[in-house]
Design a protein that fits this description.
single chain; 16 strands; 3-stranded antiparallel β-sheet; alpha/beta; Alkaline Phosphatase, subunit A; 14% strand; 490 residues; disordered N terminus; 33% helix; 9-stranded mixed β-sheet
Length: 490
Amino acid sequence: MKSRRQFLGEASCAAIGSTSVLSTLLNLTMANHAAASNGLGQSRKTLVCVYLGGGCDTFNFLVPRDQPGPYDDYAASRSNLAIPRDELIALNNNDEQGRSYGLHPSCVKLAEMFNGTDFGNGTVRRMSLLANIGTLVEPIPDKATYQSQGVQLPKALFSHRDQTEQWQTSVPQGQTLLTGWAGRAADVIHSTLNTEQTGNFYMPMNFSLAGNSTFQIGQSEGQFVITSNGALSFTGTGSSQPRHQAKENAIRDIVASPIEEHYKNVFQRTHGQITSNSVERGIDFSDNFDNPGSLNGLDVNEVIDAAGFDDNSFGRNLEATLKTIAIREQLKLCRQTVFVEYGGWDHHSELLNTQAGMYASMDQSLYAFQSALETLGLADDVVTFSASDFGRTLRSNGQGTDHAWSGNQFVMGGPIGGGQIIGNYPSLAIDGPDDIGRGGRIFPRMSPDEYFCELLRWFGVSNGDMDIVLPNIRNFYDPTSSSNPLGFLA
């Protein structure tokens, strides 16, 4: 297992009120890249973010098993919410400290992907786990440093809105101009890596199945919002009915003919051009999404139907994600991100029963998704990773848990060195060395910047551009290093 490395910058990157500096760097970078050749041929890569909205209680997802010791602390702290030790699904690899763990009993297939499973080409490990990760501006070396206010902390800790924004921006001290890290990645690589797009053909790099997400908003690049049924469109777009065709032609005429005749100010002209482009993109996307064809000699729709996705919104959105990946070549995309949200994890009550059902659904659909990628020959091109608002308190409030800070995440796919538990799993003792109080709130030892940096290096963001995409990265890791920050990639 690779060791985790950190680079502690001498100065914290304070508030990104210095948006003008970031914009200048971005403009210079894009100018330098404008005429560059990507040199990557037809290689294609996709990042899929599975966002567990509401703040998932992941200390019941990844649980210590060593007894006496860590499991006893867990059981005492969680009281009526603790999972019995003999019900945990044992993981067959220990963490960096040699400690053993298990997954929630509903996560049978996820444990199988961690321990090793056969998708038809021999046993492979497709999942690793990240322990004790949460929003950070700079490292917190110990509890005493937190208590003495010796480091800059994220704004509005324990707030759904703020922590969701911070996970999606990776700028927890706040921004003047709100942009997400996938959006900023698109700003610096979309024009240089997605060079198959020529002439008037344009398709964004970022696709969202959860409406407009902060995660995918850039300064110059945006996102393309889709649904499980395909592209959003104006009513009747693409229909053969005469009344719908007349409406579509009218929309095209209004927004695509000489704009000055219809709009008299910059905002309206811009809106008109965006609308025009959206109509064209929607048709291009829908034509391919509705007929994804075949890959590896197999019909994409038939593979999806056979994969076994759960019949709920999360399962259907992962099916749509798979289709969107399968048509990358038709969309002329060598790089692509997809954002999928699975909400409802704010379990202040009924945690055990509700979470068991939600984990079972997540387990089924994520396994179906990875299995279909393997079948279609796409496994080595796709990395799927989780994120959530925050972790939950260790102590039960009676039937559930409340907002806290650190938690655990998963990352899966062909490029992943599977079967690893990476990071410093905390003590789960109430008032222990990792508990900052108020019911067992754990402070994080791992930053999302390290997590995202490793994903982005695989994705194609250069070391020189990493400061633009992740403004705080040097507080945790030197992006010029030859080693990855965490080591979950194979």
